[in-house]
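so my prof wants the structure for this chain in the tokens format not the other one, which i didnt know existed until like an hour ago. anyway here's the sequence
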Amino acid sequence: MAERSVHPARVALRVSDVGRSADFYRRVGGLRVRDEDAERATLAAPDDGPVLLELRRAERPGPAPRRVTGLFHTAFRYPTRAQLGATLRGLLRERAPLTGASHHLVSEALYLDDPDGLGIELYRDLPREQWPAPAPGAKVAMDTIPLDLESLLAEPEPDEDPAAGMDVGHVHLKVATVDDAVRWWTNALGLDLMVQLGPQAAFLSTEGYHHDIGANTWMSAGAEREPREGPGLDEIVLTVAGDPGLAAARERLTGAGASVEEGQGGTIVTATPDGVPVRLEQDQTGPGGVPDSQP
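here's what i got, hopefully its the right format
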């Protein structure tokens, strides 16, 4: 699939119990624990890929509040339909309660919540040549229709581990104002607005992908920010491809009036209008390194 110039690499979540959450993401998503102690854990796909998820112990245990800005869901993307089918069979064996299952015209997705109530999407993309033509004024066509679970369950067992090649396909945020979110992600980070559903939701990306970032006000219109001491989204890490890469990103952020701080290892740290920290780091994968709802 197509390489994207700015895309999610991993997320960091604040959780009530690091061990409990690490075990949950291992059981339901197939992630492998890299490092773990009482304060922090890192998890990755089982094929020695990069860290996709970091869990950090929250100062105050959950559950995470719902009607605040912050995380709507972290979306983990599987390379094939067979792998998603195997993942669904695993969820049924674990008796993991699904909160939804949808076909979005560009992807097939399963939804559930983690132990703190933080949203998760497990999905696979349809090949781009199967994406329907968008309506006038939009760059992608998406919808939410029922997913054929029987067909998905009937997929053969994959040749590889069901989670091999998994990555963070997108991050979907709860925001106070969609227009402010769109303005920030397009001006400060150069994402393209792919489709907007009035004041309720917007989907943004680079390189023609359906969305790297989602933003909605379904539960958070005009809401306050989630409390930083409790469970929630601690940080989004985006990788920036190409040359000048981070230098160009820093210039764009400054020109848009966004906050810019120097992070560890030469990274850049900024924040969305709703106060979500966003860390930018240089993409080290090289060409072709990036595999190519509610959504």
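also thought this was worth mentioning. Residues 35 and 193 are 37 Å apart (CA to CA).
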